[in-house]
Amino acid sequence: xxxxxxxxxxxxxxxxxxxxxxxxxxxxxxxxxxxxxxxxxxxxxxxxxxxxxxxxxxxxxxxxxxxxxxxxxxxxxxxxxxxxxxxxxxxxxxxxxxxxxxxxxxxxxxxxxxxxxxxxxxxxxxxxx
Length: 129
Hints:
With 129 residues, the chain is α+β, with helices and mostly antiparallel strands. It is 43% helix and 24% strand. It has helices at residues 2-31, 48-55, 96-103, 106-115, and strands at 34-42, 66-70, 87-93, 119-128. The protein is elongated, with a radius of gyration of 22 Å.
């Protein structure tokens, strides 16, 4: 009986010890700041400046903390540098939850609906900071 009680106590402590880091990680992930980088490869004939003007609405979505829009920098051509995209949009969020809300923001969805026919490819890189 004593060894069974000791076994159950050990099992309980082990269970709590394993779930504590998971719940702590989940809590930290909710507060994790992040950067959402979007790279657009535009179709032939799409004006970059007009597209950037349209895309500027993304930085005005309510959960976006900061935003930057740009084009490839005229840096030295190297095998590790990709200059092939036409427009990059970098959005900063105070939490992953804010970025999740952004995904369903009406202005974000409207931008996609109105402009998805203008790009041939789009790549997104989400970075925890």
